[in-house]
Input
Amino acid sequence: MASTERLPGASQHHEFCRPTLYLLRKMRSDASLLLESYAEKQGLDTNFSLDLIDGVPVAETECWAEISDAERLQDNLKAYWAFEILLEEILEEQRSNLTPADVAFHESIKSVMLQVTALAYQLEELMVILNHNVPAREYEDRRSPGENGSFEKKIRGLKVLQQLAQWTVRSIKDLHQVSKSLQPGTVLCAASCTAQAQEK
Amino acid sequence: VQRHSQQESHVHYAQLGTDVTLQCGSVDPEATVTWTANTTDLDASHLNGSRLVLHNVDLSQSGQYSCYEGTSWHLKYRVNLKVGTPPKEPVLMCRSNNYPNGFYCSWHLPSPTYMNDTYDITIIHDSKEIACKKDIPAKNRCYIQYHQVFSSKKYRVTLTATNPLGSSSTTISFDEFSIVKPDPPESVVAKPIAHNPRRLQVTWQYPSSWPDPDSFPLKFFLRYRPLIIDQWQHVELSDGTSHIITDAYAGKEYIIQVAAKDNEIGTWSDWSVAVHATPWTEEPKHLTTEAQGTETTTASTSAFMVAPTARPSDPDDAGN
Output
C-alpha cells in the first residue's frame, strides 16, 4: 500500500460516536465468523430456511427511512437486550450438551456476548443523552414450548447469530441516520465511549 | 400473366437447420401448383405434389412464400416463413446500485434467436411475489422497490424467455446485501500541487445514483501508476472524497482510477473513468549560454535518475 495523507473535512456526521461504530464493525465481523463456525460445528447449512423460528429479533424493517430517531434507538436497544439473553442460552446449550469440550468455541461466543452487552449499554446512554425514553427492560422466555430437542436448539442458535449479524449492519446505518439529525460537528458519545476514546 | 394476389397471409416458424414442408393451404396435395419465394419462382425439384419442401433451412430462407394454382395462376395460399432458434437459458443478473431504495434485474440471451422473444420475470421474497417495474428505455431490465430492508430472507428471481420455437428459464437466489454494488465514483479530478514534485491531489464525488451518502457512506479504493510502469499502487480510504498521493515519481505522467463500496455490505463498484496527471515540475530558469550548457548536461542526467523515494510500499517495488 502507498503512503497516504488525509485531507481535512472528513464528514462531520461520522464523528458521532465513532467508538460505537467501531464496536459495531467489530461485532459484525465477529458475529459473521461465529455464525460460520457455529453452522459448521452443528453441521448446519447457513442457507437453511429459518423463517419458522420466532422469538428472535429480526433486523428487517419496512419504511426504514421514516422511522423516528427515538424509535430507531429503542428498536436497537430492545434487540440487543434480547440478544444478550439468547446468546446466554446458546452458550449454556453448547457447554451442557452440544459442544461441551469445545472451550475455544465457547470463548468466541462469550466474546460476542460481551460486545453485545457493551453495545446495549452505549445505546442506553446515547438515548439518555439525546433525551429519548429508554424502554423498560422486559425479561421474557423467548423459546417456544416445542423447542427443546437438540436439533431445534441448534437451528434456533443459527437464527440468533444470523439475525445478530444482520442487526450489526442495520445498527450502523441507524446510527448514521440518527447522526444526520444532529448538528455537524457534534461529537456525541456516551460517557463510556468518551472514556474509551481518552484511553487511546 | 396477371397473378391474383389477394390472400390472407399466414406465418410458419421453423428452427434453423431443420426441414420444412409448406402446405398450399387447402389445395389438393397432388394438385399442380407453382411456389414463389419473395416473387422468385421455385423450381419443381422443391415440390412434393402441391407441398413445398425445404431442407436444412437457414436464415436467408426466411421470407414470403406464395402458392399459385398451376393453370389459372390464381394465388391460393401465402405464408411468411420465419427461420430462427428457440431461446437458450437466459443470463440474469440483479444488482442494487441505489441501496436501500431498490434493485434492478437485467438479462440477455447468450445467442440471438432471430425471433421476437418475450420475457416473464417473477420475484419471490418472504413467500410473496414482488412487482418488477419494467424499465421503459432498457427493454431487458426491470426495477424492484425494497419494501423491507436488512432482511436475511433470500430473494428468488425466475426469468422465462419465450418465442414461437420454445422457451427457457433461469432462476437465481441471493440475499439483499450481496447484490449491493455502487456505480463508480464520478467527477474524478487529479491535479499537481504547486512546489510539490512528488504529490498529486485526487478528488472525486459519490456516484449520483447512490441515494443516501450520510446513512450509507461509501469507502473508496484508489489505484494509480505512472504510465511507464504496469504495476498499480493502491490505497483504501474509509471516508472522504479526496486524497493526496505523496510518493509520485517526479515528472512522470500518472493514470488514476477510483472504485467505491458500501462500508459494510456488497461488492466494489467498477473502476471509475481513468484520469491523467503529472506532478508539478520546476520551470527551467532563463540562463546565459555558458551556464546553460552545464545546466543542460546536469538536467538531462537528473531527468532519468529516479529521485530517492520513501521505502517502497510493495515489496516487489523494491527492485525498481
